[in-house]
Write a structure and sequence with these properties.
four-stranded antiparallel beta sheet, mainly beta, 46% strand, 28 strands
């Protein structure tokens, strides 16, 4: 009887651990509609997804197509007034008004074949990171193009953005990361800093005024001139290929890699993979946080974690 009770307890623990993620798909089964490239939320908390088949909005228990079908959406933003921006691979930047889903090409923003990242800062300015033409800044109705020729950025392929607690804008590229504070511009790369790689894939700001930098060769933290580098050799990271980053409302850092996702706070950590949980896929392409939930986008669908019941 004792052995049976122990076995039942073991099974219960496994089931509880296995069932922590809620899995949702735009379309059941294997589909390009489930290849989630971007996650964002509008001003009332509706979930929007950019996929390799189009833009989708969650409505009740289903996802509705909000764009022409079959377009590869690399980046997505819903700004403060409800205007939608989508970076379409091979097509540039498309825009849709808050009132409808009539998407039109934004010619002033479409200076490149695609937009890797679209970001809105605390002032309402929209930053668009292009494939090979630098960044486009939309400030009100004024468009500005910043490249390596007129600004201190590492490369004209811009991969990601973030804004820290000091209102500095951080810009990731394939040749390092730059910070803008409105007056001073600073570029960090492997030649002048402790960055483990110039290939910057993800950025996230922390509650302690630091910046987290995800690279092709590990994770970096920069705080007031001091660097800390994390890799599989000195930390619980599952991989050194850091694809996505996010910090939740409790200050927990979520590190998405090509081999799963790890939650880190101080010296505590917890990792999720398809081997130790019901995570749908190990390639964590994008991460979104809204209220008390974590949203993880993979090639096979969306995984959602209730942060109220999560502990390290």
């Amino acid at each position: 009887m004792k052995r049976i009770f122990t076995y039942i307890c073991f099974i219960s623990i496994c089931v509880c651990t296995h069932a922590q993620w809620t899995i949702e798909q735009v379309e059941k089964g294997s589909s390009s509609k489930n290849d989630i490239r971007a996650i964002c939320f509008d001003r009332v908390g509706n979930l929007w997804l950019g996929t390799s088949y189009g833009v989708y909005k969650q409505e009740s228990d289903a996802f509705s197509l909000q764009s022409p079908e079959g377009v590869y959406v690399e980046s997505l933003l819903v700004d403060r007034d409800g205007t939608k921006f989508a970076g379409v691979w091979g097509g540039g930047v498309y825009q849709s008004s808050p009132e409808n889903n009539d998407w039109v090409k934004n010619d002033e923003a479409s200076i490149s074949m695609s937009a890797n990242s679209i970001f809105v800062d605390s002032k309402g300015r929209v930053w668009i990171g292009t494939w090979n033409k630098g960044l486009v800044l939309l400030d009100g109705s004024v468009y500005k193009n910043y490249t390596t020729h007129n600004r201190t950025i590492g490369d004209n392929t811009i991969t990601c953005f973030a804004e820290d607690k000091q209102s500095r804008i951080w810009i990731g590229s394939l040749q390092g990361v730059s910070s803008f504070d409105g007056r001073k511009e600073t570029l960090y790369n492997i030649n002048n800093s402790a960055l483990p790689s110039n290939d910057i894939y993800a950025l996230a700001t922390d509650t302690d005024k630091s910046i987290w930098i995800g690279t092709a060769c590990g994770l970096a933290n920069y705080n007031n001139g001091k660097w800390k580098i994390y890799g599989t050799d000195n930390s619980p990271l599952l991989s050194n290929t850091i694809l996505s980053l996010a910090v939740d409302l409790r200050g927990i850092l979520w590190v998405g890699t090509n081999k799963g996702i790890t939650a880190i706070k101080g010296n505590r950590f917890r990792s999720f993979t398809t081997q130790n949980s019901n995570l749908i896929d190990n390639r964590i392409q994008t991460i979104g946080v809204y209220a008390d939930k974590l949203y993880v986008g993979t090639q096979l669908g969306l995984a959602i974690l209730d942060l109220k019941s999560f502990s390290l």
